[in-house]
């Protein structure tokens, strides 16, 4: 789809949904396009020549919308083209004579995703790399971008693979055998493809490679190794000096190819096999042991254990912020998604979250715990809002729950789990000791807290007195407060009845954790 057709489609969809669209185009990239734009039952108002006249014209159309006795006029839509940037602060918006129309309908062009470069990539995702390069090198026009739809640089490659997009073609031939075999099936395609590879990623096969099969192996190694090398925040060890290196100018395409292989369900298994083979061929696990910090991209499987070790080191240093950064970054890693490794990462993430919670609870309790009354301790544990000391129990439950799903890991994370268990006892016992002292001093039951024996009379009985009112009442034994709260939140999809259930759980389970 051309960029113009895509933009026309986007505008028509917004007009159908909102009826009024104010199109902000600060770069005037669509100044020619708007002159020929047409849509059913749509009045186009351009503010290029006169803001005052166009405002009056827009007001005249707006007055007729939905109110005119003339059905044709009442059913009109309004598109206002404003070749300026939309205001970002309130004063700027108040001075914009068309802001009121944007509020009545919708604005277009004021977001990055609605500007020319992004719209071009959305219209032609197969040309995304080329589009990015064009904008990096200059200011391509809409007309120039539209021509990309019909521009085929590699017709033989297009015939063989159905695409001549560099990133798409490379990803297909490396991950899918049936696609790779088509390179030899079209006469002259291999020569054309090699020229494309040299231009786009700097790849040139070694002289000894005579067949496409040999070239394909070299291409896979070149591509993955260079993604890894370009992503490193430091210099490569000298042991890799003999491997061909890509220039920084090739980084964009190399990263795009690897992302395409990892992110696509049809290519992912082929990528995993290729990455494992290249890692073993180059002995990357051993030769990179002295690299202090790896990059952020997900090229090879050996990096997964390296990152995990780094997380564990951060935990030992009580540097939970940096540990969490790695966990967030690696959450969707292709190498963490294997069942066994995925379980380990889930345990570690829950442990780190627990430790951060334990630090927060300890910090708060140290400030005021020794002066708190029994009622205050209960309120701190189970406050009306979401966060309270009950979070300590919740995250302890979650990491213990995940730990039971994975029995033994050769010691990789056992020390972390044991540390979390000790930490839980340390923080929880300090609160419990103060709680018991308050019970001895003040007695039990504290005032102002709903007793479990009062729940039925206060919440269930009034409902039973209503005609045709059905009530289900669940009495759960040994259900901790934080477990009841999580259960209540899980039932929110049931609708407004959940509001009552949530209150019921909250009131009923207020003291459950302290009674057991």
Topology:
Blueprint: H1 3-18, E1 20-24, H2 31-36, E2 42-46, H3 51-64, H4 71-74, E3 77-82, H5 90-95, H6 99-104, E4 106-108, H7 116-123, H8 128-137, H9 142-147, H10 155-161, H11 166-175, H12 177-180, H13 182-185, H14 189-201, H15 212-231, H16 251-263, H17 268-282, H18 284-287, H19 302-316, H20 320-330, H21 339-368, H22 374-381, H23 390-404, H24 414-442, H25 455-464, H26 481-490, H27 497-508, H28 512-515
Parallel strand pairs: 1-3, 1-4, 2-3
Helix pairs in contact: 1-7, 7-8, 11-16, 15-16, 16-17, 19-20, 20-21, 21-23, 21-24, 23-24, 26-27
Describe the 3D structure.
There is one protein chain. This protein is mainly alpha-helical and 516 residues long. It is 60% helix and 4% strand. It has 28 helices and 4 strands. Strands 2-3-1-4 form a 4-stranded parallel sheet, with helices on both faces. The C terminus is likely disordered.
Question: Could you list some keywords that capture this structure?
Answer:
516 residues; mainly alpha; 4-stranded parallel β-sheet; 4 strands; 4% strand
């Amino acid at each position: 789809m051309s960029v113009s057709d895509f933009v026309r489609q986007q505008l028509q969809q917004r007009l159908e949904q909102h009826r009024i669209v104010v199109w902000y185009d600060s770069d005037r990239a669509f100044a020619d396009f708007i002159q020929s734009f047409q849509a059913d039952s749509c009045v186009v108002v351009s503010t290029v020549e006169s803001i005052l006249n166009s405002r009056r014209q827009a007001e005249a159309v707006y007055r007729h919308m939905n109110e005119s006795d003339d059905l044709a006029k009442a059913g009109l839509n309004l598109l206002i083209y404003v070749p300026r940037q939309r205001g970002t602060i309130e004063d700027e918006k108040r001075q914009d004579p068309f802001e009121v129309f944007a509020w009545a309908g919708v604005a277009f062009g004021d977001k990055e995703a609605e500007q020319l470069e992004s719209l071009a990539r959305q219209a032609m995702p197969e040309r995304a790399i080329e589009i990015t390069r064009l904008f990096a090198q200059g200011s391509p026009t809409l007309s120039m971008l539209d021509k990309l739809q019909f521009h085929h640089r590699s017709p033989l490659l297009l015939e063989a693979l159905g695409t001549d997009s560099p990133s798409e073609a490379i990803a297909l031939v490396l991950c899918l055998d049936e696609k790779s075999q088509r390179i030899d099936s079209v006469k002259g395609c291999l020569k054309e493809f090699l020229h494309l590879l040299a231009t786009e990623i700097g790849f040139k096969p070694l002289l000894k490679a005579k067949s496409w099969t040999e070239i394909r192996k070299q291409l896979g190694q070149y591509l993955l190794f260079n993604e890894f090398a370009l992503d490193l925040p430091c210099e490569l060890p000298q042991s890799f000096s003999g491997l061909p290196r890509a220039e920084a100018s090739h980084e964009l395409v190399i990263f795009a190819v690897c992302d395409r292989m990892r992110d696509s369900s049809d290519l992912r298994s082929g990528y995993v096999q290729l990455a494992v083979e290249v890692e073993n061929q180059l002995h990357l696990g051993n030769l990179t042991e002295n690299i202090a910090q790896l990059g952020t991209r997900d090229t090879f499987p050996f990096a997964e254990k390296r990152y995990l070790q780094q997380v564990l080191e951060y935990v030992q240093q009580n540097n939970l912020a940096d540990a969490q950064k790695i966990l967030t970054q690696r959450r969707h890693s292709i190498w963490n998604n294997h069942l066994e490794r995925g379980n380990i990462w889930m345990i570690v993430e829950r442990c780190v979250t627990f430790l951060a919670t334990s630090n927060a609870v300890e910090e708060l309790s140290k400030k005021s715990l020794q002066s708190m009354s029994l009622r205050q301790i209960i309120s701190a544990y189970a406050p009306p809002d979401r966060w309270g000391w009950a979070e300590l129990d919740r995250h302890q439950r979650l990491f213990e729950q995940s730990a039971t799903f994975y029995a033994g890991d050769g010691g990789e994370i056992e020390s972390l789990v044991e540390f979390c268990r000790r930490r839980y006892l340390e923080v929880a016992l300090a609160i419990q000791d103060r709680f018991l002292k308050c019970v001895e001093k003040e007695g039990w039951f504290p005032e102002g807290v709903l007793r479990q024996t009062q729940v039925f009379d206060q919440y269930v009985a009034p409902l039973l007195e209503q005609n045709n009112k059905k009530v289900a009442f669940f009495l759960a034994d040994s259900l901790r407060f934080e477990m009841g709260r999580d259960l209540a939140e899980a039932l929110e999809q049931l609708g407004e009845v959940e509001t009552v259930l949530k209150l019921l759980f909250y009131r009923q389970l207020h003291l459950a954790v302290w009674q057991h």
